Structures
1.
Amino acid sequence: MAHSNKSVEDPEKEYNPVNYIPHSESHGTKEVWMGFWILLGLTLIDIAFYFIMPANMLRNSIFIVLGVVKAYYIVGTFMHLKYENNKLMLSIIIPIVFILWLIVLLLYEGDALSIME
Amino acid sequence: MSTTSHLETETHGHDDHHGHEHHKETFISKYVFSMDHKMISRQFLITGIIMGCIGVFMSILFRLQLAWPSESFGIIETFLGKWGKDGILDPNFYLALVTIHGTIMVFYVLTAGLSGTFSNLLIPLQIGARDMASPFMNMLSYWFFFLSSIVLISSFFVETGPASAGWTVYPPLSALEKAMPGSGLGMTLWLVAIILFIVSSLLGGINYISTVLNMRTKGMSMDRMPLTIWSFFFTAVLGLLSFPVLLGAGLFLIFDRSFGTSFYLSDIYLNGIGALDNVGGSPVLYQHLFWFLGHPEVYIILMPALGITSEVIANNARKPIFGYTAMVISLLGISFLSFIVWGHHMFITGMNPFLGTVFMFVTLIIAVPSAVKTFNYLATLWKGNIRFTPAMLFAIGLVSLFITGGLTGIYLGNAALDIQLHDTYFVVAHFHLVMGSASIFGMFAGIYHWYPKMFGKMMNNTLGYFHFWLTFISAYVVFFPMHFMGLAGVPRRYYEFTLVPEFGIWMDVNVVITIAAIVGGLAQVFFLYNFFVNIFKGEKATQNPWQSNSLEWTTPVEHIHGNWPGPLPVVYRGPYEYSVPGRELDYYPQNIPSDGEDDIHHTETVKVDEPTIETPTTEVDSSKVLFASFAKLFGLNRA
Amino acid sequence: MATTTVQETESIWKGGRSPFKVSYGKLMMWFFLLSDAFTFSSLLVFYGAARYSLADVWPLPDMVFNHFPLVGHYHLPLFFVSLMTFILIFSSVTMVLAVEAGHRNSHKEVGKYMLWTIIGGLAFLGCQAWEWSVFIGDGAKLYSNNFGLTADGKSYAEGLKVFGHYEWSEGLRTAGPAQFSSLFFLVTGFHGFHVFSGVVLNIIVYINVLFGTYERRGHYEMVEKVGLYWHFVDLVWVFVFTFFYLI
Amino acid sequence: MKQTQMKTFIKTGLMVLFFGFVYVAEPILELKTLNTELQEAALFGVGSDEFEPFKEATGAESLKSKIQWALYIAAGLLILVLAYVFDVASYAQKLTGRKIADANKINAWMLLIFLGVGMYFAAWEFVVHGPETKVYNSSSEHGVDYDNMFMITLIFTAIVFVATQVLLFVYSFMYKKSETRKATYYSHNNKLEVFWTIIPAIVLTILVLRGYAVWKNITYENPNSKNAQEIEVFAYQFGWTARYPGADNKFGAHSFNYISGTNSLGLAVESEVETFKEELKKDTSDYIAKINSIDTYLSELNAKVKDFKKLANFKGVEDTEKEIARVLNGEYKMDLELMLRRRTKQLERMALVEMNKEEYKATFNGSVHDDMITKEIVVLKNKPVKLKFRSRDIIHSAFLPDFRVQMNCVPGMNTEFTFVPTKSTDEIRKEKNNEEYNYYLYCNKICGQAHFNMKIKFVVVETETEYKTWIAAQKPAYPMQLPGSEKEEEINSPVENQVEESVVIIQSNNKKSI
C-alpha cells in the first residue's frame, strides 16, 4: 500500500494503523518444496504403517502423531506462522488447549457411553 | 492525507474508511446500512431494547400463569390468540414462552444488545481509532443479527407455535416433531435464527479482536486500556471460540431433525408412531457440545457488564479502579476457566459421574477471580467521593446482585449439592441474579453513562433514579425467594404447582414474585420514556459530562465520521487517574501530556505515568511476578 | 524507525502500530480460521465420541473405501484417498508459490500459480464427488448403511489381499451403525463445502489478479489471505484423512 | 430536566391510563348485556348447557382480571405521581437556587435503608421459608451428608454475603460525594490483593474436597450399590411405571424394539414378541398396500367430499380437502414411506438379534416372567434401594426432592441412583401433620405439555411384613405360560392407562379453570 507506507515514514502525517502493512519478505521457494516433500513423505509413512502394522492403539497413536506433525508443517511453513511474530503464534496456538480438553473429556465420555449400553 | 489517497482508498474500500467528512451521505447510508460504528452501536442497542421488551413481556405473561393458575386474563387472550383461549395460557405455549424468553434474553438482549452495542461504541472511541478494523463486516454483523431476530420472532406466527424445548433445546425433545408441537417448524426457525446469530457474532468478534490488537492509538498500550476494552476483548475471544461449537451441535441437530440421522437419538418409541429407526446416538453428547458454548456464553453476557461497571464505578467514585492488573488477570482467568467447566450443567444428566468430579474441581476455581473482582470493587468505593448518577447506582446494584447470585453458584458448582438443586427454582434464582439481572444492570449503567456520547443528549436523572430503585427492589423480590422454593425442590418449567400439595404451599410466594415482576416490568416504562424521548428532546450534552479520563470524551458531541476531527489523540497514562494528588482537577484525561514528558517513546520517563502512594520496596512482590510472567507471555510491558 | 530490536519489542504494545506486525485483514483471517478450527473440532470430536461408544460395531474403513476409478472391484484401500491428499497438498504448494510470487510483486507468476491452485481444488472436488457416488452406490445413505460385517464377512475381510479382487455376496455384509455414513457425509461434506468456497474465493482473486487490481494496490495481501484459508482447508483434510480413513 | 418534558411524560402516562380505563370499563358494560341475555335465556327456556360455559364464566373471570389490571394501572399512576412530585422539587431547586433535595444524599440514604430492609427481609426469609426447604429434614441416608455439606456452604457463603453487602452499601453511604473532601488516590495494594485471592481459594478447596467426598459416595463409589434392592423406573410422556424383579431378583431382558400395545415396557416375553412381530409384518404389508393404492384413496376422498357437501358438513369438507391436498403434494406418500421404513428397520433390527440363535434364545429366560409392573414404587425403610432408570421417548428426570435423589432418564442409556430411605411415609405424615402427604417421584426435565403432572407415588413402608404383603399382592405382568393354558386376559398395559389418566387430568383441569 503505497500511501500508507508514506504515512509511516512521515511522522508529520497521521499514523494510520489500518494501513499498516509490514514489509513482507519472501522466504524463497526452497522451504516450500521442502515442506511439500516432508508432507508427502509423512503421508507415505502413514500408508506404510497402515499396511505393515495390524490395527491397534499404537498404530492409531502413530497416525495421530504424524497428523500433528503434518499440521505443524502446514501451519508453520505453508501458512507462514513460523515466521510470524511469536505473539501471534501464541495467540493462535494457546486456544487449541480448549480443543484438547474437549477431546479428552468427550473420548472419556464416549468410552463411558459404550459401557452403559 | 492527500486527495489522491482518498480516491485510492475509495476504490478499494476495505482498506481505508476514515476521513470521509466530505463524503455525502444519504439517509440509507447514514441510518440504515451505516458503516459507522457509532450508528451500528445505536442500531444494536435499539434492536436489543425492542427484543428486551418482548422478552420481559413474555416473562410477565407466564408469571401470571404461575401466580394465578387457571385464572382467566384478558391480556393473555389478546396477545396469544388461540394459545390463550378464554384467557388461559395453553400448557404447550407456556413452555414456548419460557423457551423464547430465555433465548431472547440470553442471545438477543444480553449478548447482542449489551456486548454488541458497547463493543461497537466504545472499542474505537476508547482506544483512539477512527472506526472498526472492517466497518463493512461490522455492518454485516448487525444485519445478520437483525435477520436472526426477525426469523426468531416470525416463529410466533407458525401454526404449531415457536420452539418450546427450553432455551437449551435438548434433543430428543427438540429433535422429534411428534414429541411436542413446538418441535415442528418453530424449532427449525429457532435453529436458523441461532445460526444467523452465530454468523453475526463471528463477524463482530473477529472485528473487535483485531481492532483492539491492531488499531490502538499512540501510547495506548495494553495496560492503559480501560477495563471495558479488556472485557470486550475477552468477550469477543470467548464468542469466537465457543459459538462455532454450537454451530457444530446445531448442524447435528438439524440433520437429526430433517434428514433422519441418529446423532443424538437412540432407542426411541413415540406414542402414535412406534419405534423410530434411530439407534446408537447419545443425547448427552449434544449437551456436551451445547454447554461448551453455553458456559462461556454466560461470561459473554456477564463480562461486558463487569467492564462497564469498572469504568462507571471508578469514574463516579473519582478514584482509580483498585488493582487494575488484578482485574485484568481475573478477567483472563474467568475467560480461560469458562472453557473447561461446562460439565457442571450436566452433573446428573447421565454423564459419567467421574467427569462430574473433574468438572466440580475446575468449576469452583472460577469463584476465586470472581471474588477478587468483587473485593476490588469494594476497595474502589472505599474512601471515594461517590457521585450517585443513575449509572453509578446501576453499577452498585450490579455488584450487589453479582455477589448474591455468585455465591449461590458455589452451591450449584458442587456436584453433590447439585443433585437436589438441578433444574429447580434455585437455578432460576441463581442465573437470573448473576447473569440476568446483573448484566441487565450493567447494560443500564452503560446506557445511562454513555447516552450523552451515543445521542449527544442527556438523560433525565430523576426518571433514572425511579427506574433504578424500582428495578433493583423488584429484582431482589422476584429472585431471592426463589432460592427457598428451589431448596424445597420446586422444579422449574412447571406449568402449575397446584396439583401437588408439596409445591402448593409456595403459591403465595408465587403471587408476590409475580406482582414484583409486573412492577419491575412497569418500571422499565421510565427507562423507555427517558431513552426514546430524550433522543429528540433531551438537554444537549456537554463534551465531557462525567469528567471522565477516557478518550471517548475527547471527541466532539456531534458524531463525525472518523471520530476525531484532527489527528488522533495520543495517550500518556492509564484511564483511571482520578484524584491524582497534587492536581487541582480530580481527573486527568489520558490524552493530556504531563509536564516534562511529551515524548512517549522515552521509556525511562513513563514511570511518571503511574504515581503510586506506595514507597518502592525491594522485596519481590508475588503478584508482580505473576503479572510479569503474563507480560512475558503476551509481550505486555508495564515499562 | 531506527530502533534496536530490544526497544522495538518493548514498544510494540504501546499502540500506534500492530503488535503482531500484521495488517488487520490478515489478523481477522487468522482469527476466523481459529474459529473455524473449533467448528471442525466439534464435528471431529463428536465423531471420536460416537465412534468410541460404538467401537465394537464400527465398520472397517478399509473395507469401505477401497475403490479406485476404472479398475473395478479390486481391494485398494487408501489408494484413492492418498491421491486426493496428494492433490490437495499440491494445490497448497502452488498456493504458497503464488503468495511468494506476490511478495516479489510478480504479476505473471501469481496468476499462473493461482490457476494451478484452482485446478487442484476442482480436481479435489471432482475426486470427492466420485468417492461420494461410489459410497452411495455401495449402499450408504445418510441415515443408514450396510457396512457392518457378519461373522462370515469378517473372515472374508481378513482373507482379502491388497490388489485382490473382491465381491460382496449376500450374508457377508449387514447393517452398520448409521453414524458411520452420516458422519462421513456430514464431515466430508462440510469440508467439501469449505473447499468449494475456497475455490470460489480463489477464482475471484484470480480474476482480480488478471485485472491487475493488486498490482495497482501495490501489494498482494489478498492472495495471502485467501492462501491462509486454502491451507486451512488442507489442514482440516489431514485430520479427516487420519480419522476417517486411517484409524 | 426541563419541565415541559416532564409534562409530556405525565401527559403520555395519562393517555395510557385513559386507554387502560376504557379497556377495563368496556367488559363491565358488556357484562350487563350478557346478564340480560342469560335472563332471557332462562325466561324462554333455552337449554342452559348451551350458554353456560361460554358466557357466565368468561364474563365473571374477565371482570376479575380486569380488576387486577385496574390495580396495576393504579400502581403505575402512583409511580407517575411520585415521579412528578420528585421532579417538581428538583425543578424548584433550579429555579430558586436553594437546595431542596440533594439527589446524591437521598440516594445514599436510600442505599443504606435498602441494606437494612433487605437484610431484614433476607433474615425473615430464612426464618419463615427456611423451615419449608427440607434442609435437615431429608428422608434418606445420604441426605444427612448432603445437608451437612449444604450447611457448611451456607455458613461460608452467608458470612461472605453479609460482609460484602454491608461493605458495599456502607461504603457507598459513607463516601458519598462531598464538596470538601477529595477521594483518596489509592490504586492498588498487592499484599491485600494476594490476601483476598488466597482466602477464597482456601475456603473453596475445603468445600471442593468435602463435596468430592459426598459426591463420590453418592454416585460412583456408593457402598450400597452391590446389595441394594433393584427397581426399574420407566419414564415416558407423561408418566412413570416401576418394575420389580420378582422372586429371582433378576430383571428380564428388554428392548425398545419390543414395545407394543400389550408390552409397554418392551420386555423380552417370547409370546408377546412373536405376536408383535406378526403385527409389524402385517403393518408393513398394509403400508405397502396403501402406497400402491394412492389413486383409489384419492378417488375415495373425492367421493367423500361430495357426500359431505350434500350433507352440508363443512368441517368434514375442510378436513377431507386438507387430506386431498396432502395426497396431492406427496406428503401422504412420504409419511407412509417413512412409517414403512421405520417398521422395516424395526423388523431388521429384531432379525439382527435373532441371527445369533443361542444368545437370542437366552434373552427369553425365565427371569422376565416373575417381573411385576406397578403403578407405585414401594420400598422398605432403611434398606438400600437402587433405582434403574430407563426412558421410552425423550429425556426425563426422576426427582425425589425429599430424598435428595435426582437422575436423568435418557433414551438409549441406563442410568441409576442408589440410596437408603430412612423415613417412612407414615413418619413424614406425622412430621408434616398431614395425613394426605405422599412422597412423589417427579419429572424434572422439560418434556412436553403435561410435564408438570408427571409423577408417581413413592411409598416407604416401615416394616418388612408390610413390604412383603404389598409385594405378595402384586401380580407378575407376564406369568410363565404353562403349555396349553390360556393367556390371562386382565393384564392390560398399565402404561397406556396412565397416559390416558394424565390427559384426562389436563382436560379436567382446563375445564375447571374455564
2.
Amino acid sequence: MPVTWTLLLVLALAVAGYYIGRSRVLSAAGGDSRRLHSRPSYYGWNIAMFTAVPTLFLIAIWSVLRPAGPTVLAVLALIVAAAGMAFALSRTNPDFRARNVVETFVRYLLILCSMIAIATTAGIVLSMLFETGNFFKQYPWQDFFFGTTWSPRFGGGSQLGILPLVWGTLYISFIALAVSIPIGLFAAIYLSEYASPRLRSWAKPAIEILAGIPTIVYGLFALITVGPMLRDYFAQPLGLGNSGSSVMTAGLVMGIMLIPFVSSLSDDIINAVPQSLRDGALGLGSTQSETVRKVVLPAALPGIVGAILLAASRAIGETMIVVLGAGAAAQMGLNPFEAMTTITVKIVSQLTGDTDFAAPETLVAFALGLTLFVITLGLNIVALYVVRKYREQYE
Amino acid sequence: MTDATFPAAGASPDKSSLLVADERTRKRNAAERRFRAYGLGAILISIALLVILMFTILTGGIGSFRQTYVEIPVTLDAAQLDKSGNRDPEEIRKVLTLTYGKLIETALQKAITDNGITIDGLTAADVSNMISKEAPAELRNQVLANPELVGQTIDARLLSNGRVDGYYKGRVTMETAARDSNTSVAQLQLADALKDKNLLATEWNWSFLTKPDASDQRPEAAGVGVAILGSLYMMLVVLVLAVPIGVAASIYLEEFAPKNRLTDIIEVNISNLAAVPSIVFGILGLAAFINFAGLPQSAPIVGGLVLTLMTLPTIIIATRAALKAVPPSIRDAALGVGASKMQSVFHHVLPLAMPGILTGTIIGLAQALGETAPLLLIGMVAFVRNFPGAPPEGLFDPASALPVQVYNWTQRADPAFVERASGAIIVLLVFLLCMNLLAIFLRRKFERRW
Amino acid sequence: RDQIQVSGSSTVLPYSTIVAEAFGENTDFPTPVVESGGSSAGLKKFCEGVGENTIDIANASRPIKESEIEACKAAGVTDIMEVRIGYDGIVFASDISGNDFQFTASDWFNALAAQVVVDGKVVANPYTKWNQIRADLPDQDILAFVPGTKHGTREVFEEKVIHAGCKDSGAEEAFKAAMSEDDADGACMALRTDGKSVDIDGDYTETLARIQSAKHGIGVFGLSFYENNTDKLKVGTFAGVTPSTESIASGEYPVSRPLFFYVKKAHIGEIQGLKEFVEFFVSDEIAGPDGPLAAYGLVSDPQLADVQKAVADETVMAAN
Amino acid sequence: MNDMSKVERTVSQTDIKISARQAQVYYGDKHAIKDVDVDILDKTVTAFIGPSGCGKSTFLRCLNRMNDTIESCRVEGKITLDGEDIYDKRVDPVQLRAKVGMVFQKPNPFPKSIYDNVSYGPRIHGLARNRAELDEIVEQSLRGAALWNEVKDRLNEPGTGLSGGQQQRLCIARAVATQPEVLLMDEPCSALDPIATSQVEELIDQLRSQFSVVIVTHSMQQAARVSQKTAFFHLGNLVEYNDTDAIFTRPQDPRTESYISGRIG
Amino acid sequence: MNDMSKVERTVSQTDIKISARQAQVYYGDKHAIKDVDVDILDKTVTAFIGPSGCGKSTFLRCLNRMNDTIESCRVEGKITLDGEDIYDKRVDPVQLRAKVGMVFQKPNPFPKSIYDNVSYGPRIHGLARNRAELDEIVEQSLRGAALWNEVKDRLNEPGTGLSGGQQQRLCIARAVATQPEVLLMDEPCSALDPIATSQVEELIDQLRSQFSVVIVTHSMQQAARVSQKTAFFHLGNLVEYNDTDAIFTRPQDPRTESYISGRIG
Ligand SMILES: Nc1ncnc2c1ncn2[C@@H]1O[C@H](COP(=O)(O)OP(=O)(O)OP(=O)(O)O)[C@@H](O)[C@H]1O
Ligand SMILES: Nc1ncnc2c1ncn2[C@@H]1O[C@H](COP(=O)(O)OP(=O)(O)OP(=O)(O)O)[C@@H](O)[C@H]1O
Ligand SMILES: [Mg+2]
Ligand SMILES: [Mg+2]
C-alpha cells in the first residue's frame, strides 16, 4: 500500500503545485493575466510537472530495482517532489517564460515516448541475439539460410533450413493480403464515400469486431469449415491434392481477419481528405468512382499504405490461423492447396515444444525471429521508399 | 497573350439530352455502378462473415451460461465432519473434500430411494459420478464459512457432472453415452428421473462469470472470473500506457521531429515492430521485465507491459496516418494567430486526427485483448484459481486472461470445455464491445469533413 | 509470493492442475499456479536461477537433459529433485464410425516411412492404402495425424513405433545394406512428406478435429485424451493389446512414456507449501491407481512407493 | 421584378440554356435561396452580383447539382437545362456536370502536377485521342487562363505549390479544358492582378461565342465589362435580373440601386 | 530604386517597425524573393502590389516566419522587428507571431464554431479575464470585420459553413481579436462585396492608429485608398517602394508605371 500512497501524495502535491503556481504568478502580476509572459495555467503546469515527473520516474525506477523498502522510497519521493516544486516556484515570476518551459518539457516527454519504439527494437534484438549466437555455434549458418528442408529431430541431426518457412510465410501472407486489401479497401471506400451516415455508424464498428475475434476462432473456422470445403470443392475436383489444410485455407481466413485493418484505418484517412478536392473533381464531371480512384485515393495513399503494411505485419505475425488452417508441414511448393507453414508458427512451436532448451532445435526459434525481423525490415524500407515516391500532399 | 485561341478541339458540342446517356457516359456509369457494387459487396461480405462467425460462437458458447444442478437435501453428518463434537473450526478444517463427497453420495442415494426411482443397470459409480467433483469443495467451503451447519440437513444446490449437463444441452445423447466411458445410459436416465421429480434443473449460470478456472476433471465448474479480472487489469495497463505513449510518439514524429535519416529510421523501425510476431514480444517481456527488472511471473502488470509494447506500433501507425491527413492550412491558421506549435497540435490537429487515433486504439486494443502468444512466455497462460487483489497491488498477483482461458480450454480433452471456450469467447467479445463502445462514440463525435 | 509456481509440459498440465486444485481445496495454502508452455520453456524458466522470481517446479514429459542440468548449474540451480508421476500411454484412434484396426509397429513403419523395402529393394513409400501393407488391414486410404516435431510424443512415436517397426519389418537391415549407418538410422525414422502423414503442431483437440473433417484419418493420441472421448474415437490395438491404464501399467502395451516434474530443493522452506504440494502430488490418494489422476488417464507408477520415499527424503538428482 | 418577366418574354425559347423556377435552397433549417426564377441564356455571359453571403455561390452550385455533396443542403423548385429538369431522378449528375463546368470560389487544385490537373477533365471525358492532342488541350487551356507562361517550365510540379492567384487560374484552366456547355465561375478573378484579370475576361468573352457563362463577381466594373445579363441577389432573393446595361444604368429596385451606388471596388 | 533610400532616410529610426535587408527566399531551387530591402513603418498601412505569382505572399509570410512551416522554403538575409532579428535562434516564433498577426490568402477557418474561431487567439494569449470580456472581444472583432450582423445569431455554428466572403471576414476578425502589433493581411477583401470591403478598409484605417498594417492587394484603388506606403513587387524583386501617392502619381520604374497604367479593376 505505501507505494500507492506515495503515488497519490505526489499527485496531490502536483495538483497543489498547479494552483499555487497559478495564484502566485497572478498575484505577482497584480491579478492581471495580460502582464504575464504566458497564460497563468502554464505557470501552474510548470510547477506540477517539476513536482510530479521526476518523482514519478524515481518511483518507476525504484519499483523495478527495489533497492530498499517502500518507506525509504516514500521519504525520497517526497524530498524529490518538494525539491522540484521549490525549484519551479523559485523561477515563477511574471516574466518567466512558463509556456516555453512547459512546452520544452512536454517535447522531451514526446521524444522519450518515441524513443520507446527504439528501445523496444533494441530490446528485441538484444533478447534474441545471444541465443541466436548460441544457435549458430551449434548449427552452420549456410544450412540455416540456404537449406531447403525443415525437419527438426529430437535426437539431433535436424535439418533446419529456413527457406521453406520463408516461402510459406510469403505465400500465405500474399493470399491473405489478396483477400483483405480489395475487400478492405472497397469497404473503406464505400463507407466513406457512398454509405449513409447510419449504415456507416454501425457497419464500421461491426467490421472492426472481425479484428477482435480471437484468432483461435478463425483457426477453428479454417480447420472445420473452410479447409474441408476447399478440399472437397476445389482441390479434389481440380486434382490439386486432398489436403484438408492448405495455404489457401489459412490465407483466406487470415484475409477475413485482416479486413478491418485495411478498411477502418483507410476509411479514416479517406474521410480526412478535404471535401474541396472531391468537389473539384465532381465539378469537372467525373463520376464518384473516378473521383475516388483518381483524386481521393492518391491523396490518401500514405495512410492507406500504412494500413496495408499493418495488415501485412499481422499476416506475418499470425500463428493460430496458420497452425490450424495451413498445417505444420514446412515445404516449398506452388500448389495453394497444399499444407505449408510460416516462420512465426515455427518460432512458437519450437519455443513451446518439448525439446531440449539448449539444443539447436529450440534455439532456432531465436534465429528465426531475428531473421524474420531483418526480412520485414527490408520490406518496410521498400515500402517507405515507395510511399515517398508517390505521395501527394494536399493543400 | 492574346494568342490564346480557345477552345482548341471540336467546335460543336453536340447538344445531347441529359436524360439519354451517350456511349461513353454509359460506360462510365457502368464502371461507377460496378465500383459501387464492389464496395457494397465488400461490406456485405465482411458483415456476412461476421454474422457467420458470430453465429458459430454464439451457438457454441451460449450453453455455458446455463448449468445443470441437482438440488437435494444433504445431511451434514456431525459424526463425520466434527468428530470431537466441539464445533472447533480448526478441527472442521481438517476434514477433506473426500468426506464431503461421501456425504453427497449418501444424500443422492437417499434421494433416489426416497423418490422411488429405479433404473436398470444403475451402478454405484453412476450415482456418485452424477455430481461434479466440485460440489464437495463447495459444500466444504459453505461449512467452513458457517460451522453451525454441521449436523443439520441443508438443501444443497450441487453441480451435476459435465456429461449430464451436456445431455441437457444436446452435446451428449443416449447413443454417445452408450459408447462413452465417462457416463452411461443409466446415468442419463437417472438424471431424467431426477428432473421429473424437480430435483434436477438447468439454470442460468452466474458462476461461469464469477468462478475461476477448474481442472480438466470439472468442466462444469470452470469459469472466467479470474480471466476477466486479469484481462481487465492488463487492458487498464495498456490503455494507460499504450494510448498516451503511442499518441505522444506519433505527435513527436509527425509534427516536431526534423525530417532526416534518424526519423526515417524510427519510422521504418516502428512499422517493422508491427511485423514482429507477438510471441517475440513475449521473449522480450521475459527477458526485460521478468529476468532483468525482476517483476513477478504470471502478473497482469507484465502482461500489460508486453501488450503495450505490442500495441504501440499499431497505435502509432494509425495516429501518424491520421495526423498526416490533417490539412496544413489548419496548422497555419493556428500558428498565424500566435499559437505555439504545441498549441496548434493539441488544440486543432489532434481533435481532427481523433477518429483515426481512436480507430488505431480500437484495433490495437482488440488485438491486445485477444492475444495469447506473448503471454505464453511470461507465465500468464496458466491455471490460476486465486483471484488477484485490487489494483494497483493486484496487478502483481498471478492472473490469467480471457484469450488464455479460450486457448487452454480448447486444448482440454473433455468436450465440455469446447462449449466453455466458446462461452469465454462470448465474454471476450462483450468485453471488447464495451471497450469499443466508448471509442466508437468518441469517434463519431470527432468525425467531420472540412 | 504466496503461491507455488509450476511451469512446463502441456502433457503433464492436466494432472498438475487436478492436483493443484485439490491441494488448494483441502489445505490452507493457495492453489498453485500452473503454467503450460512446453517442457522446454518450463525447464528453461526452471533453470533461470533460484529465488522468488523463478518458478519452483517444472513439468516435463521427458527426463531432463544433461545439457539442461549444466545450464541449470550455471545459473545456480543445483539441487534438483526429479519426481516421476506416472506414465502416459500413446494410442492410435480413428473416427468412431470407421474400421477396426489391429496395428503392429511394422504396419506403422510401412505406412508412414519415407522409404520402405519392397521385394528387398529400398524404394520411396509406394503404399496408399492400409491393406496394401498387410492384407488383413482394412481397405482404407492411408492418412495419419502424428504429433509435430515439437511434441515429446513424437519422439516416443518415432522410437517405439516407427523405429521398432523398421527393425521388425527387416527394413533396418536393408537400409544398412544400402547406405551408411547414420543414414540408415535416419531413414528408419524419416516420415513421408507426400501428405499421407500430417504433422500436428497443435494439441490432441486439433487431431480430433482433423479426424472429424477427414474421417479416414488415424490419429496419435494420449491415453487420457482418448478416454475422455470414447464416444467419438475408436482405438486400435497395438501388437494385439488394447491400450488401457492397466495394460500399460503391466507393460503389455508397449507405447508409453514416463512423465516427470522437477523441484528446486532450494525453494523448499522458502516457498510455503512446496514440500506439502509435492508430497500431496505423489500420495496414494492422488497418484495411486484409484486416485483422480488414474481416473483421468494417467498410468500410475508401479514404483510409486519409491517415488514417495524419495520425495520425503528430498533426494536430489545425482550430480555428475 | 415586373420588368423581369418582360425581359423573359423577349427571349426566344430556344435561347434559354438554364432556367430556374421557384428555386429554394435550405441548409438544414436555414432558407438560403428563396423563390428564385431566372433564365440563363445561351451564348451569353450572366453575372451574379450581390453582397457577401447573399446566396450567389449557393445558387450557382444548384445549377450543376454540386449542392448534392453538402449533406444538410436541400434544393426545391425546378431547374432545367435545355428544357430538361436537372433534378429529375433519371438525370445523371455526372453528365450534367460535364456539361455545366464549375470554377470554385476557393481554388482547389488537385495534389497532382499542374499538367495532371488540367488534363484530368479531358482524360475522363475522352476529349483527346492521343497524348499530343492532350498536350495541345492543356497548353490551350493554360494559355486561355493566362497561366501558360508562368508554368510552362514546371508542368510536372504540384499544382498546390502555386501562388494563390496561380491556383485560381489553374482551376479556370482545368474547368475550361473539359469544354463544358455552360461554365459557372465563382469569383474567378478575386485573387488576380488587373492584367491577369483582363486576360481571363478576354477568355470569358471568347467562350461566350460557343457557351453560356455564369460568373459571380464582387466587382461591378467586371460585371459591366464582361456580362450581358446581370442578376442581383440579396438575402437569398433574386432582386433583379436584367440586361447588364439596364441594371447599371436604370436599376428598378431600390436595393439594387443602393448596392450599385455604394460601389467602391 | 534610388528614390527608396531617400525615403528611408527621411524616416526616423524609431518609427521603423519591420525592416528587411537583402531578404532572399527559395522554394527548393526556385528563387522566389530576391534581395528585398524594405522598412515597414509603425502606425502605417503598407500595401504590397504586383502581378500574381510575383512573391507578395511569400514575402509577407517571411515577416512572421510562417514560411518555417513549408519544408522546402529557405529564408536568407536579415529581417528585424523593432530592431531585433526575427530569424535569430533565440527568438521564439510563437511570440513573434503573437505580435505579427496574419490573415491568409485562402480563408482557413478552424472547423469549430464561429465563436471559438474568434476567441481562440484571445484565449491562448490571455487577453480576457473572464467570459464577459471574451464575449466583448469576439463581438468587437466581428463587428470590425463587418460580420457581426450576419452571424450574431449563429455564433455556435461551424465557421466552415459560412460563405466564402464570410469566411474571409471571419479570418480577419480572428486575426484582429489577438491584438497584434503588426497585422499582415493577404488579400483580405478579395471575396468581399464593395460595402463589406469599405467596412474592412475602415477597420484597417482604425487599426492604423495603434498598429502597423501590411496589406497585399490586387486592387490599385484599394491600395490608394487605404495605404500610406506602397511596395511594388515583380518577379520576386521589390521594384519600387515609396509613399503611396508617389507610387501612383510619379512611379520611378517603368515596370511600376506599366503595371499601374494597365490598371483595370
Ligand atoms: N510552396 C511552394 N513551393 C514552390 N513554389 C512556390 C510555393 N509557394 C509559392 N511558390 C512560387 O513562388 C512564387 C511566388 O509565390 P507567391 O505565393 O508569393 O505569389 P503571390 O505574389 O502571392 O501571388 P498571388 O497574387 O497569385 O497570390 C510563385 O511563382 C509560386 O509559384
Ligand atoms: N454549408 C453551409 N451550411 C450552412 N450554411 C451555409 C453553408 N454554406 C453557405 N451557408 C450560408 O448560406 C448563405 C449563402 O451562402 P453563399 O455561400 O451562397 O453566399 P455567397 O453569396 O456566395 O457569399 P460570398 O460572396 O461571401 O461568397 C450564407 O449566409 C452562408 O452563411
Ligand atoms: Mg460565394
Ligand atoms: Mg499570394
